[in-house]
Amino acid sequence: MGGVASPDLNLPHVLIVDDEDAICKMLSRYLSRNGFRTTVASSGKGMMTRLEQESYDLILLDLNLGVEDGLDLLRELNSRHCSRIIVVSGRKNPIDRVVGLELGADDYVCKPFHLREILARAKKALRPANATRVAATCCDGAEVAFAFDGWKAIPDRRQLIAPDGTDVTLTGGEFKLLSVFLKNSGRVLSRQQLMDVTHGVGWHAYERTIDAQISRLRKKLEVDPKRPKLLKSVHGDGYVFTASVTKLPARGA
Predict the structure, then answer these.
(1) 220 lies in some domain
(2) Looking at the domain assignment, is residue 137 inside a domain?
């Protein structure tokens, strides 16, 4: 029987956004051979059109898209969509990496890149937050929620509910960071520990990366981000989550 096989809709779906056709084809072929469905867009406008048509698990976003500002696109993605985002950029300055993460990217890869690195980072971005080096995970496999200071967080759903009942949108990186703090409430965590847990052991980053993510998280959690009461700095040591955290079944959250 001839014909083209239908795509497996159960595979994670990746949207590749790059104005270089060769890079789009290369990434699409490689990821398709390694357990992903892929769709390609060559511009920010094309990306938005595809996002209106269907949802994606992960977006690989180039910041240099001709006249379009990739950082503006990243900011819009962070405010309107819940996909994980990996920036794939030729901008190698550490400040560019920090700004990208600050605007909502879950990870940042510099060009030129190795395809295996993209694959590894894509798989990691789509895994649930793994904080085993800092806190033990739940052993019964049941979906759980965390309640703190009037808030509720359900990590498996990546859902954060404010005291007034509204849903607060977090990026994948922000929620991963919050999950680590919820499982380690009252414990001072160093920047290195936080980087190991949220990005993997041995991940090399400008130290301000964690500071930028903390700043973003405070803006969403704190009444006054400049005078934080939940997520406090510990001079010379790192950060501590001060709220009393209660774990309960997500069904009753």
Answers:
(1) yes
(2) no
